[in-house]
Amino acid sequence: MSESEFWQDQANAQALTLEFEKNKKILDELADLDGQLSNLANIMKDEDFASTDETAVLLLEDLQKRLDNLETATVLNGPYDRKNAYLFLHSGTGGVDAADWTGMLLNMYLKYAARRKWKTAIIDQTSGGEAGIKSATIKVEGDLAYGLLKAEKGVHRLVRLSPFNAQNLRQTSFALVEVIPDLGEISEIDLPEKDLRIDVFRSSGHGGQSVNTTDSAVRITHLPTKISVSSQSERSQTQNKEIAMKILKHRVYLLEQQKHDELSRQLKGSDQSGDFGHQIRSYVLHPYHQIKDHRSDFVTTQVKEVIEEGNLDEIINSVILQLKDKLR
Fold it and tell me: pTM to 2 decimals?
């Protein structure tokens, strides 16, 4: 990398530098894990060691989680896995409970991103009225953002006692999650103005109070495909239009690819409706506490840690390792 010719091709140099940093990070983690395993082996050799030794058990659990994370990182070597991602949330069947559930999922993913030190931006959000949200679009920036979040695409089902029902009856709610990679500038797609309907409206406000004083939010609908994208994260209507157009190009591009390429269908995410028959994961808060992923059969009772704190590592790892060939 010290050769002057190396930096003449900036794009190639940047790609190689990122690859070097990724591999170095994996090697450093392997070296540290090797040292920790040696420590554990020494603890187990001690004549006073017992299988119930709390220090050894905690160390073993931590090492297992780190090994799973490392295995997942090595599996995620597809062309889009290290790219940033766009996350789309849609409220499904269940009325106000479904809107509230969609809001809970939004918070869960924001917490998960924060745990991984990813950068997030809420590009668009539509209020659910009484509670929660009807829909939201989030941009997530960070290493392996798409590679990990693609495990979340599909229908998420919540079962709980409804806080919005006077009889406090059990309610089942659904929300749809879509995930696509940020592909950068897409030159292959041309969207003629005649094929677009552009609407402006007043932002519901993520950028401060002044956002709401003008019609700064933008919605662009691609008439041939009926795909609609909104942006209200910026104060400027021009900036919001640019963001919405970029995402719209991504979605139209992936839809076109879907017509003749099965891989692109997977990149686009689930096109299923938000109903009972297609859920990928169930979150049960009544009559017991349990989260089950229906693809990997991973089960946990740590409901609060997952939903409220965004502790999704074990669930996502289980899905990626179980479906590593299908998710590429």
Answer: 0.78
